[in-house]
Amino acid sequence: MKGRLNGKVAIITGAATGIGRAAAMLFSKEGAKVVVADRNVEQGELTASEIKKLGGESIFLSTDVSKASEVKNMVDEAVSAYGKLDVLVNNAGVLIRTSRLHEVSELEWDLTLNTDVKGVFLCSKYAIPYMLENGGSVINVSSTSGIRASLISSSYGVAKAGVISLTLTASQEYAENGIRFNAVVPGIIDTPQSRGSTGSTEEFELRVSENPGGRVGGPKDVAYMMLFLASDESSYVSGASFVIDGGRTVGF
Predict the structure, then answer these.
(1) Which one is catalytic: 82, 130, 156, 174?
(2) Residue 72 and which of 11, 64, 161, 210 are 20 to 30 A apart at CA?
(3) How far apart, in whole angstroms, are the C-alpha atoms of residue 112 and residue 201?
C-alpha cells in the first residue's frame, strides 16, 4: 500500500543518520514532502539529496533543537517552503554514557536534557500553531531507558522519561484541535549512535545476544511505526507509547 502520506508535509529532526534518516526516506516514499533537520550538515544534505534523487521533495535545514531561534526558523522555513505542516517527528537526541549519578558533570547533564527533552518542547512549541486549524501528528522519540533503570546514563533516562510525560500532557491539551501526540520507545537499535554509546563491538554484540529474538532492531523497525502514527490510519491513536525492542524490556 503506497501513498500513505500523500499530500502531507513532515519535519523530521535528527534525520541525517539512523532512525531519523530511515523515517525521512520512508515518509518520502509514501508521498510526504520531508524537511530534514539536523546539526550534521554533510549527512543531512545527503539525506535530502537522496530523497530528491528518488523523485521525492525534500529540503535540509541545519538546526540545533536546543536553541529556540534555530527551531523557530526551522518551522517557519518548512511552512514557507511547503505551505503547511502536518507531521513533526521529534527524533533528535544525544546519549552520553558517563558514570554513576554522583560523577555526572553538570555539562553532561545540561547537554543531554537540553537536546533530548527541551528540544522536544521547543519543536512542539513552534510547530503546534501551524497545526491548530487542521490538526496534525507529533511523534516523539523516547527510549526504553525512560521506562526502566538507565545505568551510567541517568541524564538520558530522565530526559526520555520526560519525553513520555510531555507526550501524555500534550495529547490531552490539543485533542480538541485534532493534534495527536504519540511516543515511540525504542530499545537498542543498530545506529551509529548506539554502536558509539556501547563503547565497543564486543559490548554491542553482547546486547544482541541478550535480546529474546536474537537480534537488535534496525532503523526501519522504528520508522514503520512512525509511518503508521504519521498516517491517517492512526487517527484514533493519541497519548500512546509504543515499545519497540523485540520484547527485551518485558524480560527484566
Answers:
(1) 156
(2) 161
(3) 24
